[in-house]
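BUG: 3D viewer hangs when loading the predicted structure for this chain

Environment: internal workstation, default settings.
Expected: structure renders.
Actual: progress bar stalls at 90%.

Input used:
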Amino acid sequence: MSGKKRSNVISKSLLVLRSFTDVKKEWGVNELARYLDMPVSSLHRILTILKDEGILAFSTNTQKYNIGLEMIRLSSIVFSDLDIKNIAKPFMESLSETLNESIYLSLYHPDLKQMSFIESVHSSNNAFQYVLEIGVLHSIHIASSGKSILSFFRDEEIESIVEKQNMDVKDRQNLINELEEIRKNGYSFTFNERGIGAFGASAPIFDASQNVVGSLICVLPIKQFEKSKAPVICKELKRKAKEISYSLGYQPF
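Structure tokens produced before the viewer hung:
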């Protein structure tokens, strides 16, 4: 097989795989051929090779292909070696340059039900760097950094965590309402919650298992905060958080 022909087969194989990871999890041959505008005979050869290698599997019940055990095994190995800090850092640097503000990355610790800030990129415009301490555990029901994580938990998880806080009934309900709004908008912003004198905005980060794993945060002194800038900050945070999530293998339903 010539190099050009081999390259073409590889390109088509990658297109096929992306159809299973980016579009939907199960395809029939004719259906996928129409979607990719590819001859059925060519597609069938590729699907057969991928099935023989365990990358795809074929269901005799549905007569359709889906992700195979070998693909799952390989993905698990790759994901276990991913360093979210290294993946997120270029996006953080780009965002800090765009907004000219300091950007932080938080990580959620499911076993502790807490979060910590694990990486930061500081802007020369922002000397307010002491607000978020790297490596220190924090509650997730306080400030945008935690609320943008908590808001994407299952309802029963949210209720369980909120119930454990020393809050009266009214404050608990206000928090629940705020979390619902954050989930709808896809971002959060708060004033004076984790640090006095700080404005914080945050957007959630998800992994390949559709779970929220942390948040991307912009923080700046309230004295430097301009109300008109808030929509821009939130929009850019949400966009970069989505790009990081995609790099971690996340695909929205």
